[in-house]
Amino acid sequence: MKKKPIYLWILLVLSALISASSLFGILGPVPSKEVLRASLSNSGSLTAQQIEDTVNYTYQVTAASHSIFNVVLIVLSAILVVVAFVFLVRKNVQFANYAYLGYLLLAIVGLVYSFVNIQDAIQLIKDDTLGLGIGALAKGTVILFMIINVLFLALVFYKMWRQQKDLAEEAEAEEVA
């Protein structure tokens, strides 16, 4: 009896949720600096410089997330998740694994792109304390997602290796019989 690729179903559902939220994120417009400034001025706990730094940082990061390169990455990622689901439903696990590997590699490229954009946006922050806080949080988030993607990549490669090994053992057993 063949084992069901439950790991791939779980990974694809998680990836589909992430892709859907990313698609909805790029559909919205980039908010203007005035809108961002108005929403932050109501917080009351930030100084004028901190508000201006946060507005500049947020605007830069949001504008970068709506760049053509990032939009193409998000759309291709969503397409690869759908393709992987189609292959998985048709019980072609090998091609589903390949499509998911493509998705993971695009996700890693997207994370590197985000990391570079975050580094550029942090340069806009003049307040050292705010810059350190935002920088640490942003870098930590990117690093966490990078680790998760690499772990998913390792899991899929391991499962593919096990599937190939099982197929070789089955073929060897058939030759003996």
Automatic annotation (TrEMBL):
<keyword id="KW-0812">Transmembrane</keyword>
<protein>
    <submittedName>
        <fullName>ABC transporter permease</fullName>
    </submittedName>
</protein>
<feature type="transmembrane region" description="Helical">
    <location>
        <begin position="136"/>
        <end position="158"/>
    </location>
</feature>
<feature type="transmembrane region" description="Helical">
    <location>
        <begin position="7"/>
        <end position="27"/>
    </location>
</feature>
<keyword id="KW-1133">Transmembrane helix</keyword>
<feature type="transmembrane region" description="Helical">
    <location>
        <begin position="68"/>
        <end position="88"/>
    </location>
</feature>
<keyword id="KW-0472">Membrane</keyword>
<feature type="transmembrane region" description="Helical">
    <location>
        <begin position="95"/>
        <end position="116"/>
    </location>
</feature>
